[in-house]
């Protein structure tokens, strides 16, 4: 689907299934930018060459939506196909933005110092869920800014937030000192599912959790000793799909799993 040039990430289908949304560095360089230096610990690279593109599902009719230096990625689209939400470093910090599906009307939704990213719209596209790291201690702020100057981020502490689709009414759902990421709304919009290592902070053993959008009733969903992450529901909430290291051929291999979802009240 992609051009085969540069580095590509964060692909997502348009609701109709006829087009794809993704980020790529190919507009700046045909070569793939280097992987991050892990000698400083586990970090994510924030390649400033990333821009957001849309294309037909076969890769044709490629259109570049962003053209701003500073990491435009992590883009997803509302289920009515009208609004794209994404993460950008264009203002010198990692914040969440929205734009129309054609790239117009770009609006910044977050401005708290730190990382805000990985956003998804609710099914009725009235809310956005995202992950965030807002360092408070001086040492944490210094580490964040030092890495940011190198286009890096350390994702060892992340919390789940929800806000209205216009950026108002922000509220924090988790505050546990762990790495909570990959949030996604239940179709009903009243809960969020996400991955966390809260049961073993600092480890790579992530499991799936659910929480109400007011931050109450945290529930652990998976209990496997291997990594479980990136959960998403289908349209009617009957199926859950996620990535897992369980049953892998070799350590670190991640495969896709799907399961029936049955709420307690339906059992």
Condensed summary:
It is built from 1 helix and 21 strands.
What do you see in this structure?
- By secondary structure, the chain is mostly beta strands.
- The protein has one domain (76-266): TolB, C-terminal domain (Neuraminidase).
- 4% of the residues lie in helices and 39% in strands.
- Strands 1-2-4-5 form a four-stranded antiparallel β-sheet, with no helix packed on it. A four-stranded antiparallel β-sheet has the order 6-7-8-9, with no helix packed on it. Strands 10-11-13-14 form a four-stranded antiparallel β-sheet, with no helix packed on it.
- The longest helix has 11 residues, at 138-148.
- The mean pLDDT is 95.
How many helices? The count is 1
Q: Can you say what the CATH homologous superfamily is?
A: TolB, C-terminal domain
Question: How large is the radius of gyration?
Answer: 18 Å
Structural class based on helices, strands and sheet pairing:
mainly beta
> pLDDT under 50 segments (min length 5)?
none
Q: Using the alpha-carbon principal axes, give the shape.
A: globular
How many extended strands? Answer: 21
What's the N-to-C terminus distance? 41 Å
CATH architecture: 6 Propeller
Percent of residues in β-strands: 35-45%
SSE series = EEEEEEEEEEEHEEEEEEEEEE
Q: How many discrete structural domains?
A: 1
């Amino acid at each position: 689907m992609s051009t085969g040039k540069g580095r590509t990430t964060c692909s997502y289908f348009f609701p109709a299934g006829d087009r794809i949304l993704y980020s790529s560095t190919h507009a700046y360089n045909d070569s793939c930018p280097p992987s991050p230096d892990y000698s400083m610990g586990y970090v994510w690279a924030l390649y400033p060459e990333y821009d957001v593109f849309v294309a037909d599902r076969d890769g044709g009719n490629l259109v570049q939506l962003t053209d701003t230096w500073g990491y435009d990625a992590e883009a997803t689209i509302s289920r009515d196909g009208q609004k794209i939400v994404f993460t950008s470093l264009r203002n010198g910090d990692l914040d969440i933005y929205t734009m129309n599906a054609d790239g117009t009307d770009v609006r910044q939704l977050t401005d708290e110092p730190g990382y805000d990213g990985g956003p998804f719209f609710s099914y009725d596209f009235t809310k956005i869920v995202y992950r965030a790291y807002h360092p408070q201690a001086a040492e944490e702020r210094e580490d964040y800014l030092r890495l940011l100057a190198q286009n890096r981020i350390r994702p060892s502490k992340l919390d789940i937030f929800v806000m209205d689709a216009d950026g108002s009414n922000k509220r924090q759902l988790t505050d546990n000192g762990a790495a909570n990421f990959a949030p996604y709304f239940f179709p009903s919009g009243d809960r969020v599912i996400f991955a966390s290592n809260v049961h073993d902070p600092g480890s790579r053993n992530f499991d799936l959790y659910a929480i109400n959008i007011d931050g109450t009733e945290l529930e652990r969903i998976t209990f496997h000793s291997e990594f479980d992450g990136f959960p998403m529901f289908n349209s009617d909430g009957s199926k859950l799909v996620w990535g897992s290291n369980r049953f892998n051929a070799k350590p670190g291999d991640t495969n896709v799993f799907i399961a029936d979802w049955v709420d307690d009240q339906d059992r």
